[in-house]
Amino acid sequence: MLNFILKSLPALIPNWRSVLWRSHSMRALILGVIWTGLVSIIAMVPWLPISPMLVAWGYLGLLAYGAVGRLLAQGIGDE
Description:
This protein has 79 residues and is mostly helical. It has one domain (2-73). It contains four helices and no strands. It has helices spanning 2-12, 16-22, 24-43, 52-73. The radius of gyration is 17 Å and the shape is flat.
């Protein structure tokens, strides 16, 4: 199913990768998912413990990055 969606996406939106990556909120979401996955994998290594709070702060930071980018893209904060 996912394979079908990914194969049909270029037909719907020719430059879908750049469209997704240009959006600050989507970029923050994608980076947040990657960050959470990496930290979860690293946290399973017994000799390298990582606090769940570190994951939470990293994710919140990425969400804030997306929110600020969205505000700047809308022109809020321009003098």
